[in-house]
Write a structure and sequence with these properties.
14 helices, 14 strands, 21% strand, alpha+beta, two-stranded antiparallel ribbon
């Protein structure tokens, strides 16, 4: 153990004869503990909020999705089907046709995203999102509407009094001769209502693939995209590369994160903003550490003069207070992380009476991420070292000699 480190440790854990300095040192240490605990709690809270937000999109988003780079549709050839079916990492794939459409029901109209899917659409998705009624039967003109769509148009389940009219604009040029020449329509029955999140519930309607192909004048093998479910999500990068080789440069293979890139960017930006704000709080707290060290330097001037006379250099004396401030910051950061971890652990697994609740039945989501522990510890260590360096640099030979 080096001489400066030994003295720094003694100064850190021993009381000063001046009670004011002891009080300032305790306040500085508590500030570091609270600051690091707060940073860890906020990062864990945003990690939980991110997972909570993404779990709703994961209900309907595939592991991988193939879309054409140009145009709205492409032809799924037998060769492509064989290449997909031969991939042992793919659990299932579903053909998809997506288009904007107008829904009309009892004199109410609403523009929605119409998504046609085939019989291979994952059963787990159907079972997890339908809250009323059932999924549509294959080969019928039935639909499954989002809860918001159902509410806006007052659509019930299997309401046979009046059919839901689905209309899609016909392609063409020039002025239309009549309203029938503008839209191609089909009458459908709503077999179920699903719920995912507010945006999707108010905009998305599922239908049979054949129904949407008919509305768009597509051939039976003409589709908008292919959605894939994988056997092991850990192999997603490998499967993505294989699919890119199968489909070529005219197609783009998107992961679930890429399908929700706007949401991911928003959540990551918010997380970064909160991290920077609470890092600023830590910096303010570490000003107390600087003040505490400077007060300690002034209090120990006579001791420093003695150390200087027995052979300690100015550099050695600076190291004493540099180590003292660094130890205070690092130990305070460790204690703060432990306190934050206990609080987050309680929020995740403790009794509801001790949790922070969003609703009477829904606790605020949190996620314990090892990376957040490292982020907090590294942040407090770097800032503590810089603060200690700044405070210890105030020691000069003149200050020691004049003691």
């Amino acid at each position: 153990m080096s001489f400066p480190f030994y003295i720094a440790k003694r100064y850190l854990f021993s009381k000063s004869s001046n009670n004011a300095i002891n009080f300032i040192t305790i306040i500085a240490a508590i500030g570091v503990v609270i600051g690091s605990a707060s940073l860890f709690i906020v990062l864990s809270g945003f990690a939980g909020l991110k997972d909570f937000s993404l779990q709703f999109t994961s209900l309907i988003d595939p592991d991988l999705k193939v879309v054409p780079i140009e145009g709205k549709s492409f032809i799924l050839t037998d060769k492509l089907k064989e290449a997909i079916s031969s991939n042992e990492e793919i659990a299932s794939f579903s053909r998809v046709v997506e288009e904007r459409a107008v829904l009309n029901f009892k004199y109410k109209n609403l523009i929605v995203n119409l998504k046609g899917v085939d019989g291979n659409y994952p059963q787990t998705t159907k079972d997890s999102i339908v809250i009323l009624g059932q999924w549509f039967e294959n080969g019928t003109d039935q639909i499954v509407a989002g809860a918001g769509v159902s509410n806006n148009l007052s659509i019930g389940v299997f309401d046979y009094d009046e059919a839901v009219k689905i209309s899609v604009p016909k392609p063409g040029k020039g002025l239309p001769s009549s309203i029938n020449s503008i839209f191609k329509s089909v009458n459908a029955a709503n077999s179920g209502i699903f719920m995912v999140n507010e945006d999707i519930d108010h905009s998305l309607v599922y239908a049979n693939l054949e129904t949407v192909q008919y509305l768009l004048n597509y051939n039976s093998n003409q589709i908008s995209a292919i959605e894939f479910q994988l056997k092991d999500i850990e192999n997603i990068d490998f499967v993505k590369q294989e699919l890119e080789g199968v489909f070529g440069g005219s197609f783009k293979v998107k992961t679930r994160a890429q399908l929700n890139d706007a949401l991911y960017k928003m959540l990551n930006t918010e997380n970064l903003a909160v991290y920077l704000i609470f890092t600023l709080v830590l910096i303010i707290a570490l000003f107390n550490v600087i003040g505490s060290i400077i007060m300690m330097i002034l209090d120990k001037k006579n001791n420093l003069h003695t150390l200087f006379n027995v052979g300690a250099t100015v550099k050695d004396i600076r190291k004493i207070f540099f180590f003292q401030g660094s130890l205070m910051s690092i130990l305070g950061g460790i204690i703060g992380v432990i306190v934050g971890y206990v609080l987050i652990l309680n929020q995740a697994h403790g009794p509801d009476s001790l949790k922070v609740m969003i609703t009477p039945t829904l606790p605020y989501p949190v996620s314990i991420d090892v990376m957040n522990i490292f982020i907090v510890f590294i942040t407090i260590s770097i800032l503590g070292v810089l603060a200690s360096k700044l405070a210890s640099s105030r020691i000069t030979k003149r200050l020691i000699v004049e003691a």
